[in-house]
Design goal:
- Chains A, B, C, D: Belongs to the ThiG family.
- Chains A, B, C, D: The active site is at 98 (schiff-base intermediate with dxp).
- Chains A, B, C, D: Pathway: Cofactor biosynthesis; thiamine diphosphate biosynthesis.
- Four copies of one chain form a homotetramer.
- Chain A has eight helices and ten strands.
- Chain A has helices spanning 30-37, 78-90, 112-124, 137-145, 167-176, 190-199, 208-211, 216-236, and strands at 6-8, 11-13, 17-20, 41-45, 67-71, 96-99, 128-133, 152-153, 182-184, 203-206.
- Chain A has a five-stranded parallel sheet with strand order 5-4-3-10-9. In chain A, strands 6-7-8 form a three-stranded parallel sheet. In chain A, strands 1-2 form a two-stranded antiparallel ribbon.
- In chain A, 60% of the residues are buried.
- At the C-D interface, helix 2, helix 6, helix 7 and helix 8 of C face helix 2, helix 6, helix 7 and helix 8 of D.
């Protein structure tokens, strides 16, 4: 059987769980979380990368074989996002970039328009661009058109752990997009990651739910298992939902025989 | 670290996924499903056990090291359930028994009263009794009192694949019962099994969703992974849900530095 | 067109909203709430009825033309419920009785078994018995059999305002019961009362959500409107749910004409 | 007490239920639906307005005192929407316009970008512009900025009757927008309209669910009642949701007194 690989920007991945580096009590746990989650892509806010001292640099906890996905958090416009992306590449962080353009400070919702602009510019410059977005079919199609390597609709506002609150809109993206759909933000429990994968999402990005768990290492593995379970269920074909009961065991005649 | 084992009636189990034998297109697939799901307990309707011919006997597909959980499907009263249980034991099927007493032929809902009666009689006779029930705290406590080894509340009517529709009532059972709570019936997708485990259920029993999947072997493994993910998340401690967004990456000041 | 009346124990009612007397900051508001809600049946805990002083007696706030539905709250067994019911009738509170038998002090869940017992005794004594119950089809049928005038399944534990959390089980009762199904407990918002009626419930009982509202008089009317809306929708026939969009306005050709 | 009026573009309305003219089996029923729903604003697709024959003209069923809300359905771009709007005004249909710009023919989702463009142009020309949109806070703020009189986020794709599937996103709009938020599309039952109003929506637009009901006149009144109920509940203040039960009646000591 052919392996079920996720292809982003020409790179083939075994893992469909992307993780983040924010909010850990102690960043030293990150290598163990990478290991337990078997994630191959990790996002890191450029702001946290200290290029002058090695002391508190988040980078020292990230193994060399991970694909770095620097993100542009802090950017309020396309232009700012573009500048951060270029800085990241110049600093040797590779050519993957997660676009986050956020001007709303309360709900931290992405600005889809600015995100399209930044995606277009950066894709042309050879970046593998993964834009974080409010789920909106027209925007997703536009992002694909201007060169996004995937689209990353939010399930719920960042860090809320509220789950797949935009499920109906994400399902439409899954149905219509040609590029991978990666659910990003809002996923608070493994069951929610599993559900996203059952719906047909290509991958999920989970940060807060792992980083703030009682035991992030255990939770990293839990998400790995949940993502694999959801993917397998999707590929295998989930059975139909019925209204009336359907016996799994025969119900009649046993004692009358 | 101590292993996280499930104790039912004094027997310690690694797996928290119980499976069934009903509804497979071809029973010959059962050994592979047992293997992929790593389940250690399998339920089988007594009615399907043919003691005279070996031809179509479901038993030939069940490895010797599985714990058999014969069920009393077809019973409409406590008395009938008791007779079936005794037959099962006499036929060498061991002393585990899943009580199903169902008089309603449309929704296949269990009769909690008759179930208590049958549980009491069979527990006194040395059976390890797992009663299938409508989720009801008073009934669950009574079942524990009369000797049930676990309680098996339904998530939704049998075979509907509708998921955890009685979640609030099951959560109360999880909160208040001393014996294991095993969610039985209704679970249609791995994400739903995962959710049940995250809530603190001790195990789940899944039949229809595996047996009728496009690929039951793959689906068996998917449920195994989902159950493990949910259990790990429960043990690790799931993070809190918030209303407003909480940044996982720093949002301010990057470009102004 | 024939009027759409609710028949309980031979009494025909225009209103399908039953209300309660508990938890008001000031009981003096009760007449206005009765008026705004247009309810015709009001439940009152026998414990709150002071037969010796008229001072703080809840009864003085209830107009003579309301149907009193004394309840047996405080009863932990069928026997206690029966005694309370008889006291209520002896005290001139009529022959309607709402059975509440609750031994669990945390979730305040009814004991269905004791409730059946009390219902049987009191129905034989000529009471119009409305039993509060955990939603369970077998129990509902038994209650009908022993003489209940209606069944009152809980939507969620008393006072939680959590809504119709047992929807699937209540739908089965609606489908199968011959006597009126009155959703009692858990309804926290008019939309939830409306939803219960759309599903086909015959009535709802609302107490906490009205009594603890910012403005109980306004909320009483809101529930009246919501219940009427849900009932009308049920009678009119709710339209079907579709997965793909269906235009309400023509989508093509306008400008090309 | 001051009346609770809805102000759109300087016009004060008593009714918070906007209705539509599409999908009725027989348009002759429209006057009765207007009457039963007490709606004051009705949307009509320009395409359906026949300016040459009076025969099948939808306009003849709309009373003079209704506010006409012509919509631009059929428009695939801002430019087309603008042309339709101008035609509507030129034809004497007033200066209210509902912008619908839809290029996706499967889910009929609005194109938020084109909608902003059309809104800006038409607001400058003196129209009272009500844009139909995918719920997105950044877009809603932009629409307000360029002159929208209200924003009309979808609850679910048009005509699906699926309800408030974008609830979390709509709540954010309600929280942050200064102009009225009118939930448009997807509302299939009165309970869903009621829920939207409880959340704080300023109004709802319902077409399919009324037009395709078994009895559209009865359903029109049901929606009126549900909208009023939800509005009243919102104004009155809905009570809090609790996890554990809270007795509405006293639970102890009755018989021990």
């Amino acid at each position: 059987m052919a392996k079920d690989l996720l292809n982003i920007g020409g790179v083939e991945l075994n893992s469909r769980l992307l993780i983040g580096t924010g909010k850990f009590n102690d960043d030293a746990i990150i290598p163990d979380v990478i290991n337990s989650s078997q994630s191959q892509v990790i996002t890191v806010a450029m702001r946290r990368v200290d290029f002058e001292t090695s002391q508190e640099n988040i980078m020292k906890y990230i193994p060399k074989d991970m694909i770095l996905l620097p993100n542009t958090s802090g950017a309020r416009t396309a232009e700012e996002a573009v500048r951060i992306a270029r800085l990241a590449r110049a600093a040797g962080m590779g050519n993957w970039i997660k676009i986050e353009v956020i001007s709303d400070q309360k709900y931290l919702l992405p600005d889809n328009y600015e995100t399209i602009k930044a995606t277009e510019i950066l894709a042309k410059e050879g970046f593998i661009v993964l834009p974080y977005m409010s789920p909106d079919l027209m925007v997703a199609k536009k992002l694909e058109e201007v060169g996004a390597a995937a689209v990353m609709p939010l399930g719920a506002p960042i860090g809320t752990n509220r789950g797949l609150k935009t499920k109906e809109l994400i399902e439409i993206l899954i149905d219509e997009c040609e590029k991978p759909v990666i659910v990003d933000a809002g996923i608070g429990k493994p069951s929610q990651a599993c559900e996203a994968m059952e719906l047909g999402a290509d991958a999920v990005l989970v940060n807060t739910a792992i980083a703030t768990a009682g035991d992030p290492i255990v939770m990293g593995e839990a998400f790995k298992n949940a993502v694999e379970a959801g993917r397998a269920a999707y590929l295998s074909g989930v059975g139909g939902v019925t209204k009336r009961a359907v016996a799994s065991s025969p119900l009649t005649g046993f004692l009358s025989n």
